[in-house]
Every structure is written in structure tokens, then in C-alpha cells.
Amino acid sequence: MPVYPIEIPVVAEGQIVPILLARASAGFPSPAGDDLEDEIDPIAWVVRHPSSTFWWRVEGDCLWDVGIRDGDIIAVDRAGKRRLGRAVLAVVEGAVTAKILRKRNGNFYLAPANTREAFPDIELNEDSEIWGVIAGVVRRYDVA
Amino acid sequence: MTRPIAISDSANFYVSAERIFDPSLKDVPVIVLSNNDGCAVARSDEAKALGIKMGEPLHLIRDKIEAHGVRVFSSNYTLYGDISRRVVEVYEDYTPNVEIYSIDECFLDFSGFKDRIIHARAMRSDVLRRVGVPVRVGIASTKTLAKCANDIAKKNPIFAGVLDIMDPTLSSWLLPLVPVGDIWGIGRKTAAKLKGIGVGTAAELRDMPLRQARALGTVVLERTVLELQGESCIAFDDVEPQRKGMAVTRSSGVPMKDFDTLFQAITAHATRAAEKLRQHGLVAGTLTVFFHTNRHRSDRPQYAGSRSTRLTPMSSDTFELVGAAKRCAIAAWPKGNTQAYGFTKAGIMLDDLLPLEDRPRTLFDVPKGSPALMKAFDAVNTRFGKKALVLGSEGMTRSWQLRANYRSPRYTTRISDLPVVR
User: Fold this and answer.
1) Which of B84, B177, B257, B378 is the most buried (most CB within 10 A)?
2) Would A109 be classed as within a structural domain?
3) How far away is chain A from the Cα of B33, in angstroms, using its nearest Cα?
4) pLDDT tens figures, B34-48
5) Are residues B228 and B259 in the same domain?
6) Nearest residue of B to residue A112, measured between CA atoms
7) What does pTM read for this prediction?
8) Which residues of A touch B130 (CB under 8 A)?
9) Which of B23, B129, B132 sits opposite A94 (nearest CB)?
10) Cis ω for the linkage preceding B313 (within 30 of 0)
11) Nearest CA to B178 among B140, B157, B150?
């Protein structure tokens, strides 16, 4: 089985993530054995700030194009930076909605990300607030 | 040198926690009920404005709730505990020394920070941003004064949630404005006594002769006077005091009328108590069982039963504790017309706690219980969730469990209860 070295370093939180390049071979102890430390914990990788990250369940497909679908569980970081183009949770007229933060003619608005179905844009007014920034998504499939 | 102590707390904490996940609760009256949905224990400012009092029973405010659309919640301690933990995590980024005083109050050591106000403001806005709970911070040289500052900051929006009264000019201006009954540790009786001799404000109490304070209200009042003078008497605890006793008690949702139902509740409480002992590596020497009828229902027959027993050898074994509790419960069960009583509260108290390794042993101690079995018991319940494995005597229906008809979802601790976004 060939192993392809990764040319571009993988960076997370400004730190280079070491990638294990070990050949798996039958009948011979893996030279990588000694380097294994912990079980892989993708949740810890998604949750950058445990005290400010809350999990929500998604209903609807208005963020389909950015890979968030009906039934997914998303991590929402209240301490995340509100940047244009990011998927956010926003409170508009007493309801919480997940959309992309955009700006048009100097005004902020919330846009869907779904080219298959039509969802309306929502203008942000002084009463609305950004609840948090979507930090990751978890989906599971049937295995039974 | 005096050490600046801050106390940070959240006004209407339970309501604030409910509001994080349900924006429709913003700006509307909200109340949270006590255990068993009895009375209001947390009120939003809007609910306070409607005249709903702290501790007011639910059945007396039904009209107000209907008329003004007050949103009512049962206490959701799982949620409040998780939010509280997150708030403390933020505090820990702002001081190395946090002392948790209650679910919504922490004393914080603020020594070493150059500009305490800026530091406190940054902490306050960080708690709001990261967790979503508004907190107020009071800073002073003693815990009692810090509580005062916190109280003033809470009641007067001009301070924008942060008040530092380390500055003597500020404290000499504010203390004459604080009613003596609002001071930490001054109960209603003491406040009345003090007013009787013309001590009506924090400043007047501060200036009271120590000997007179001691004569009027024992050492506790004397200590409060010293604290108001800026002399720290209530230490900033660096170590948690060792637990000497613990209790597991609950009110029952439906009055318990027969022994089996009562014993189911007692089994559950004893099981929980044994788990807590093992978590802390302790064993208990004395176990007390108690149960009583609703004391506020003088129209119904009243009975209070209670029995204690020694645990020899000292133990943290679930079977041992449940067995001892059963002997106590049988002994305390009313003789005669037992069907007449409806027990609304039952509990277990454990005293004489010692670390397992310090447990006294006699020459002829027969080892009772099985540590291996208990280890397995705890492992199963850790892995498969609380109460995955219970003793049969706990029963299956749990009719003694609390009434919580209006509880919000456990938004942060259960995958089935996650808040939903569309």
C-alpha cells in the first residue's frame, strides 16, 4: 500500500498537526506503535472553547451548501469571531435561526446557503443578535 | 496588607440560564419554581415588577400568571449546574483563586491586579459573551463589604454591574445608604434589634462599639462589624473543609402513604448517599432516616419519624446502607392507623464520616459488604447512565419522585434534549 507524503502542513489553531506516516504491514510490528498516544477525539478538535460551546440540533436544510443538513448536531461557539461569510446562529424576533452572515449596502443580513431550495434572506435589525458562530458539525449514519 | 476580594453573582440566575436557549423569554415575566413546583424561587425583573414575591406559593399567584402571561418553569438543576460550571471556568481565566459560594456566587481573589475595575469589567463582559449570563461584581477588602458592593451594583444601574469600594471615599459615601437588613449575615431578627437601638444602616453598624455588638448578637455580629470596618474575619478559603456529614433528602411528588413506597424513596436516597461516599473515598459511622408529613397542612394528620443507627464497621457499601436504612425506617414507621398519613418528605443523613483509610478497625472486625461489587456497581452506572443498575427495593414506578411539570429541556447535558435551530 503506497503512502503519499502530505506536502502542505495541516494547521489548527496556529499549530502544525503532526501527521503519522506509517505503513501498515502484515506480520511485522508497526513502527508507529510507539507513537500512538490517545484515542482520536474529534469533539475536542471541534470544541475550541469548552465553556462557550453549546450543541444544537439542526432542523431544515437552509445551510445545505456548507454541509449542514436536517438532523445534524452542530457545535456553536459563543466566543467565536463574527465574520462575514461565517455560518452563525442568530436571534431574530424571538426565534433562533442558523444562516450565513453577510453584508449588503452597509447592512448586515442573514443569508441561506442552499442552491436547491429557496429560503428568504433576513435583515438584521437593532433587536437581533448573533448568538454564536458554528464551530463544527456532527452527523451519523445508520449502521444496523 | 488588605487583599481585594471580589464577589461575582448573577441576578435571577435560574431565569438567566433559561433565557440562554429560549429567546422568547426576553423581556417577559419569568419565574422558576422550587423543588416539587411549590413556590417561586427565581423571578425575572418583570416578574418582580408584577409583585410576585420570593418564595410565594404557586397556587397563590395563579391569577397573576394567567393575567400577565408569566412564563413558569420547574427548576432544572441539571441545566443550572452546567451553566454555573461554565461561568466558573470563565472566572478562572481572571483569577487563580476562585471560591464557589453557591450555584450563582463566587468569591474571587483580586489581589495583584493593577486596575481592578477594568479587570472586573472585562470578566463581566466575557461571562456574558461566552456563557450568556449577566453578572455583577462587587470588590472590597472583606467578604461582607464585597457583598455590600455587589448588592449596590445590582440595584443601581449607574455602576454598570461593577463596583469597587476599596476606595474609602466611595465606601463612606455608600455605606450610610445601605439598610442594615441588607448586610450579609444580618437576619431579620437581628435587623429589628439593631433598628430598636437606632442602628439602621451599614455605616451605623460599622461604627457600633464591638462590645455592644457582641452583647447584642454574639460573636457573629461582632465579626460583621469588624468586617464592615475593613478587617477581614471571614477567610478566603484556600482549601475545601473536610466534609463531616452529608444528607440526601427529597420532597415527594405524591404523598407516600404506604411503607413500600416510602422505602423505595429511602432506598434511592441511601443508594445516592453511598455513591457520594465512595466518590469522596469516605465511609460513614452513623446513618439517620427521617420522613415527615407536610407541616403546612394542619388540616391533615401530622407525623414525623426519625431513627439513627451506628454502622459497624463504618461503611460506604450500598447494601449495608440500604439495610441499615430499612431497619431505621421500620422502627420509625408509625404504629396504629398508618394509612392516615401522607409523607411528603424523606431523607437520609450520614454523619461521622472518615476517609476510608482512616477507618478504625477492631481485632475481630468481620469484613462486611463487597468493595469489588460496589466498584462494578459504580462502573455500570457511570457507563450506562445514572440508575442503570438499582436495587429492587427502589421500585420501578418512582411515584415518590419530584413533581416538575414545567421543566425545560436539559439543553446542555442530554443529546435528546438539545435545543433546535431552524
Assistant:
1) B84
2) yes
3) 23
4) 877 888 999 999 999
5) no
6) B422
7) 0.73
8) 49, 51-52, 78-79
9) B23
10) yes
11) B150
Domain presence at residue B265: yes
Angle CA(B176)–CA(B181)–CA(B183) in degrees, nearest 5?
Answer: 70
pLDDT in tens, B50-93: 999 998 999 899 999 999 999 999 989 889 989 999 999 999 99
**What integer pLDDT is reported at residue B33 of this predicted model?**
92
User: Same domain, yes or no, for A16 and A48?
Assistant: no
Inside any domain, residue B413: no
Partner A contacted by B90 (CB < 8 A)? yes
For B348, the grid coordinates are: 437520609
The answer to whether A70 contacts chain B (CB < 8 Å) is no
Strands (DSSP E) found in B294-368: 304-315, 343-355
Q: Does the beta carbon of B379 lie under 8 angstroms from any beta carbon of chain A?
A: no
All three cell numbers of B2: 488588605
Task: Say how far apart CA B155 and CA B188 lie, in whole Å.
Answer: 20
Q: How many domains does chain A have?
A: 2
Read off the pLDDT band of A89 (50, 70, 90): very high
Residues A63 and A94 in one domain: yes
Residue B415 sits at the chain A interface (C-beta within 8 Å) = yes
Q: A49 and A83 share a domain?
A: yes
List all residues 6 or more positions away from B404 whose beta carbon is below 8 Å from its beta carbon. Answer: B36, B37, B74, B75
Same domain assignment for residues B54 and B179 = no
Confidence of residue B167 (pLDDT cuts 50, 70, 90): confident
Domain that holds residue B261: 246-394
Confidence of residue A1 (pLDDT cuts 50, 70, 90): very low
Total domains present in chain B: 3
CA distance A30 to chain B (A): 32
In DSSP terms, B187 is beta-bridged to none
Task: Give the closest of B129, B418, B422 to A78, CB-based.
Answer: B129
A19 shares its domain with A64: no
Q: What is the mean pLDDT of chain B?
A: 88
For B228-265, the pLDDT digits (tens) are: 999 888 887 644 455 567 778 777 778 888 888 899 99
Residue A24 lies in a domain: yes
Domain residue limits at A15:
6-40
| CB-based contact B103:B76 (threshold 8 Å) | no
In this structure, the answer to whether residues B384 and B312 fall within a common structural domain is yes
Q: Which of residues 336-355 of B touch A (CB under 8 A)?
A: none
Beta-sheet pairing, B105-109 with A129-138: unpaired
In a domain, B400, yes or no: no
CA atoms within 13 A on the CB side of B67: 8
Q: pLDDT for A12-48, tens place per residue?
A: 555 555 544 444 455 555 555 556 567 788 999 999 9
Q: Per-residue pLDDT for A3 more than 70?
A: no
Q: Does the beta-carbon distance from A78 to B131 stay under 8 Å?
A: yes
The reply to whether residue B419 touches residue A60, judged by beta carbons under 8 angstroms, is no
Please say whether the dihedral angle defined by the alpha carbons of residues B38, B41, B44 and B46, taken in this order, is positive or negative. Answer: positive
The answer to whether A56 faces chain B, any CB pair under 8 Å, is: yes
